[in-house]
Amino acid sequence: MTGRCQDMPKSLAAVLLVAVLVGLVGVVGFAEMKYVTVMHGWPGEQAPAFQKIVAAFEAENPDITVIVEIVGRDRPALLATRLAQGNPPDLNIPLGLSSYAASPRGS
Question: Quick one: pLDDT at residue 91?
């Protein structure tokens, strides 16, 4: 049995992630940040693919370091804690993103 993340075409997942990271360029440019934190809860199987996208982004933007936080199923609690402490990630990728992209509504 495959999971929803595995059912989504890899090219679509890559396009979505690149779009999100490229969108961060505008945020980073305005705030002159050198680090961008990305929190997600994807299982380990997707981590290598995501890291390749991050590496490509960093290669094109050498002044920006992407810090990837893989938090798994604890993401909602960790995100709530970080928000309460005033230290949220720059980008939080919800688990449902890949499910939506693979659905008829997202295509």
Answer: 87
